[in-house]
């Protein structure tokens, strides 16, 4: 999948007047093609060029970064989160319960490790690998970045509507399975893999 560049981004003065429209379109896209809830505390958003474009635009809005060299540095980080060949990329977002103390809640999830979240196709499990596992990356607290390696049979199974596809989380006492992934989400993820193939060719 092609990296985001400066040319892909809108200047802040062009982005701000359209921000409400961009937000509405982004949320519709997530709900239809990208977002899966796994129990009450975990949301998984599969990332691609479209989702990361919005993330970068919002980051620039909040930080007011406008120097090209600084924006390039941010793009270098975000582009690492684009799907690569035979990989799906996702953000794992945590929702803090109203009754929980933030520090205690984050301490519970600090032990998050490779394989705690799995993409399940029928009975076949594809463990997620933590992409951001360095100390500096973990400072984001309620957000983690994951990737799912996908071989050819797994990719074909993802597209096969006869096979149920879910996300499972097993993290201490937190044991939950998502609703079945919709056909639209599955096709969108398969499109990510196909696009990454073409870009790598």
Please count the helical segments. Answer: 8
Provide the structure class. Answer: alpha+beta
As a whole number of angstroms, the C-alpha radius of gyration is 17 Å
Q: Can you write the helix and strand succession as a string?
A: HHEEHHEHEEEHEHEEH
Terminal Cα separation, in Å? Answer: 11 Å
Question: What does this 3D model show about the protein?
Answer:
The chain is built from 8 helices and 9 strands. A hairpin with a 2-residue loop joins strand 4 and strand 5 (124-127). It has one domain (6-200). The protein is globular and about 50 Å long. It is α+β, with helices and mostly antiparallel strands and 201 residues long. A 5-stranded antiparallel beta sheet has the order 1-2-3-7-6. Residues 133-140 have low confidence and may be disordered.
In short:
The chain is α+β, with helices and mostly antiparallel strands. It has helices at about 10-15, 20-35, 50-65, 70-80, 100-110, 135-140, 150-160, 185-200; strands spanning about 35-40, 40-45, 85-95, 115-120, 125, 130, 145-150, 165-170, 175. This is DUF3501 domain-containing protein.
Write the layout of secondary structure elements.
Layout: H1 12-15, H2 19-34, E1 35-38, E2 42-47, H3 49-63, H4 68-79, E3 87-94, H5 102-109, E4 117-121, E5 124-127, E6 129-130, H6 135-138, E7 143-149, H7 152-159, E8 165-171, E9 174-177, H8 183-200
Antiparallel strand pairs: 1-2, 2-3, 3-7, 4-5, 4-8, 6-7, 8-9
Helix pairs in contact: 7-8
């Amino acid at each position: 999948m092609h990296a985001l560049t400066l040319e892909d981004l809108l200047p802040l003065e062009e982005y701000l007047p359209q921000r409400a429209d961009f937000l509405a379109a982004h949320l519709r896209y997530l709900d239809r093609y990208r977002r899966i809830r796994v129990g009450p505390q975990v949301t998984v958003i599969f990332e691609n060029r479209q989702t990361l474009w919005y993330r970068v635009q919002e980051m620039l809005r909040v930080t007011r970064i406008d120097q090209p060299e600084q924006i390039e540095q941010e793009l270098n980080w975000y582009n690492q989160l684009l799907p690569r060949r035979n990989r799906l990329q996702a953000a794992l977002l945590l929702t803090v319960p109203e009754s929980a103390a933030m520090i205690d809640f984050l301490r519970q999830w600090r032990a998050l490790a490779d394989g705690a979240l799995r993409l399940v196709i029928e009975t076949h499990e594809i463990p997620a690998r933590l992409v951001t596992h360095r100390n500096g990356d973990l400072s984001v607290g309620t957000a983690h970045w994951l990737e799912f390696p996908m071989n050819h049979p797994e990719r074909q199974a993802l597209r096969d509507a006869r096979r149920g596809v879910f996300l499972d989380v097993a993290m201490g006492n937190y044991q939950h399975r998502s609703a079945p992934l919709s056909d639209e989400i599955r096709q969108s993820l398969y499109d990510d893999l196909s696009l990454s193939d073409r870009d790598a060719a």
